[in-house]
Amino acid sequence: MAVENFDAKKLRRDYFSKYFPYDEELKKIIDAKQQRSHDFLINPVVQNIHIYLVEYLLAFSCKWFNKNRFSVLDWGCGKCQVSYLLKKRNVNVISCDIEREHDDSAFGQDTPIADFANIDVTPLKHEYLLPFADETFDVVLSFGVLEHVSNDRQSLIEINRILKTGGLFFCFWLPCKYSPRQKLEQLKTHYHDKLYNGKIKRLLEKTNYNILDYWYRDLLPFRRIPFGRKKFRIMENFDNWLCRNTLLRYFASNIEFVANKKG
User: Is the whole model's pTM more than 0.85, yes or no?
Assistant: First the structure.
């Protein structure tokens, strides 16, 4: 399973600070459809975060499984940008989303990315039960999803069921309870159903996961500033440094982690 002397934190530091080219094709897809709800993916800052998180997931999984091919479930795929990035990297990815008329669901909005990349989204009929057999996937990815489900404990149990033994669960963009920005956003829009703190660790333990890495991300509110494509990377690296090395991390917008299914 995992290779010996695998330094998960060093891998994260390396990949969060790497340079990855801007995805011009993704911009063209969105511009062609004039889909304003997808404009955030044109923003170089936001697109860069998506790309380095995907690249980190792939690098971590390759080292963990000691192979280059593995199956991934993009759980709650939404606008399908993450499925698109994975497919573009020749990953065997299955996309799924809750079947409802809501602009967060792939079934409640136009999905030009899915149309372009021929992404077939599996509809989820139940709030947490998943239509997949036991131990189907090597990796399950929650990219801004766990905080929106009706029952996070049952969802984690169900994800654990469909993961292979030792399989990986990546959780990104989980909103932090102590973030001033998240609290303000909750007052304005109530966009997130739940905010999280360190108690998520106990919930993972109780639902048969072992945490391999856990961190905070997104502290400084600079992502709406129109930086050039080089300068914003300096700010992003500084932001990640603060979240790694100072107590300000507890006020960051996001908690993130990677865990594996216990044997």
Answer: yes
